User: What shape does this take?
Amino acid sequence: MNKLNAKIPEGSLGEKWSNHKAHIGVVSPANKRKLDVIVVGTGLAGGSAAASLAELGYNVLSFCYQDSPRRAHSIAAQGGINAAKNYQNDNDSVYRLFYETIKGGDYRAREANVYRLAEVSGAIIDQCVAQGVPFARDYGGLLDNRSFGGALVSRTFYARGQTGQQLLLGCYGALNRQIKNGGVKVYSRHEVLDIVVIDGKARGVIARDLVTGKIERFGAHAVVLATGGYGNVFFLSTNAMGCNVSAAWQAYKRGAFFGNPCFVQIHPTCIPVHGDQQSKLTLMSESLRNDGRVWVPKKKEDAEKLQAGTLAPNDIPDAERDFYLERRYPAFGNLVPRDVASRAAKERCDAGFGVNNTGKAVFLDFKYAIDRLGEETIRKRYGNLFQMYEKITAVNPYKNPMMIYPAIHYSMGGLWVDYNLMTTIPGLYAIGECNFSDHGANRLGASALMQGLADGYFILPYTIGDYLAKEIQTPRVKTDAPEFEEAENRVTGRLRALYDIKGTKSPDHFHKHLGHVMWDHVGMARDAAGLKEALRAIEELKKEFYRDLRVTGDFTAMNNELEKAGRVADFFELASLMTRDALERAESCGGHFRLESVTEEGEARRDDDLFRFVAAWEYKGEEAEPALHKEALAYENIQIAQRSYK
Amino acid sequence: MSDKILKELTLKIWRQQNAKAKGGFETYKIRDVSGGTSFLEMLDILNEQLVSENKEPVAFDHDCREGICGMCSLFINGRAHGPDDEVTTCQLHMRRFRDGETITVEPWRSGAFPVIKDLIVDRKAFEKILQAGGYVSVTTGGVPDGNAIPVANEKAEEAMDAAACIGCGACVATCKNSSAMLFVSAKVSQLALLPQGKVEAARRARAMVATMDELGFGNCTNTGACESECPKKISVEHIARLNREYLKAKLQE
Ligand SMILES: Cc1cc2nc3c(=O)[nH]c(=O)nc-3n(C[C@H](O)[C@H](O)[C@H](O)COP(=O)(O)OP(=O)(O)OC[C@H]3O[C@@H](n4cnc5c(N)ncnc54)[C@H](O)[C@@H]3O)c2cc1C
Ligand code: SF4
Ligand code: FES
Assistant: This one.
């Protein structure tokens, strides 16, 4: 039997969500109190879900690996959040947001989910304002908007360069209110390492208390994963150091399908790599492309002099500068979507026109905007970003162009979910960045915050009710069942095996190597030969990892090295699946660029005849190949076309 | 972006096996660190070195490494988040130090933040203060349109200044009284400035201050040390606003 049933409701696109809500089950208040829900993750998705579920009356157990829910990586989002409010009267609408998201995703997302996302987007802004989120306002006191890549209207709401922080703190407030009311119990510094499935249904998790090192069991009527993205498989990324795939990966191994693992996003505006001791990459908000112009020298010898440090960027006259985005994409210019901007930068650098001592950077220049608008206006718009840039690089971006280079930023792929956000394991849900659902092959800027909050505030609290309505007879889940025992042993065994290797190299050593393999072969440009080489290299490195890993410290105590080792072990397995998926998808689409699939002009060529589907991978065991299931994508409301930003 | 190289540094780092153990300083040498390396990357290098010697690495808190999550801490050469102003430890770079320098690294020292291991402390007390009332009591759904209530631009900006607090605890660690007033005032002030939060402003101030007192944070004696060490430049003016809100609450009683 094909387990891939997306459960998309009947009716026209605009009616689906309301029809669905009208027909799904609802749990009575008295019964809600008897039901427990585990929510793993306290970012925008998990935090908003946990708070909203507790407000409804469910008992919520919430988990995060940081010392506080407020520190989830959503906190780092800078630019903003989209919503189809049409406050600017620029002809925005639910349909336009829907259309641009599908197009931006290069026609690899599900219509019904994306339309629903656009439909609830407005309510998110209302909710956040009511919570006291200090969004930017115009002089009349109304909410301000900015524009973002891939959109023709201004629909992005923001709070300085700290939108994610402010939205998350709003949501954390809602969570705190429920903690105080007793509806939520938070387990911080806990890492979820396995999912417990009983009689085919998700019934709990196994977590490691990161302070004591104890492995603990937690039972519930349903489990929600909101664990964020897996960009750290590349080691260097804009993710936080602790971002991991472990909970999602174990869910995959217990039977949840993994959707489109090869779809990752590379962000064009990050601070370039400075050396091999680097631990992470810092994003410079995409909003900078509103006022910055991207260029490299026209002449190779100028690039070489810049690399050698014998020429300063400001000494290159305008006529000798190649504003390659404006040249190649006159309609969108510097505001082309991320994947297009990233590849264009790589193309110039590979051709030898890159700058910085590494040759792996391009300029983002504010000189023109400062001439036009004055330094004060630029300071107001981007002051904190400029300051951050200067702190990191010791270069003043008001006087010199910034240097930027693409970096891994976001994972569009993730656990496969149906319209209800349920995975292929009944009772196991996935929301936010850790599912595959709304962004297709490429995510538009300011749409991840929107998706996380849409899932957590306005979608999951309804759809989970439909499942839980059938669970009201199920008593509280006891954690002495054999399935819990088995799962706990599995986790202990896995960690023990790593701890007992007693080799010579640290987890970071292997993680960095894995990152290099992934960036070189499964990064911005991919081809069959490179992907096959990656599969071989990953296997080889993984063998070495299991032979030569060294985990210092005590097993049952706080042990950061053991935490890292567990995460790297899962990244190895994910890396293979990503590579396999990339190999299978012999077309270019969104963030996935196959060198074999390009137009005569060198632009990406999508292949809708062969690849208009979601790749959902099923785990078949340690030694067996995973099985590929295909969810065909139907576009009934959109004229599907090759994406063009010319 | 070519940076200087620090040929040798001496690190004096606080090591403590767990909450109950007695801690002490250990001294380490580290060589050839580029000025473009961040402080935490320097600790990563040290930790790799320790692992290669089969010793246990130094435990420290960190996550985003871009100055926003508030997870990193550290007293560096006697200053919270190190020698630079308006910088978190994760954004501090080694170009700020001299070749041959000795750098002392300690955890936050405050009774309210007990050490868990090495440089990691427990900041749950902050959570409890916010749980007492650091929010607007709204439930998901059923709220007015985002533009229903205009908010003057300056008020929104001022609220944003206060809302920038990252909950790192540097203010408490720096204060000789271990007072949490700057942290508490940032939240009270942000919400009191906005019409959405004004409704419960008095109750919020009362509840948060009461919880802060219960948790053993000290009194504020207006030394201003917190503001100067705060990586987000949260102003002590917010403490004045908190005092006003608190007084109002008392008068209402
Ligand atoms: C630097 C940066 C800037 C960005 N800017 C924008 C922007 O301007 N606009 C936009 O729309 N999007 C932006 N994004 C993307 C967006 O921020 C994220 O996609 C989104 O916030 C993810 O939210 P989430 O709730 O799914 O996950 P996260 O916020 O990452 O939360 C994950 C949670 O899961 C927990 N967790 C993870 N693994 C485990 C485990 N094994 N056990 C227990 N707990 C676990 C973590 O503790 C955390 O609480 C940005 C991303 C980055 C990195
Ligand atoms: S007020 Fe400043 S120092 Fe105190 S917790 Fe907030 S950001 Fe940190
Ligand atoms: S690690 Fe996040 S603020 Fe320093």
About this structure: The two ends of chain B are 60 Å apart (CA to CA).
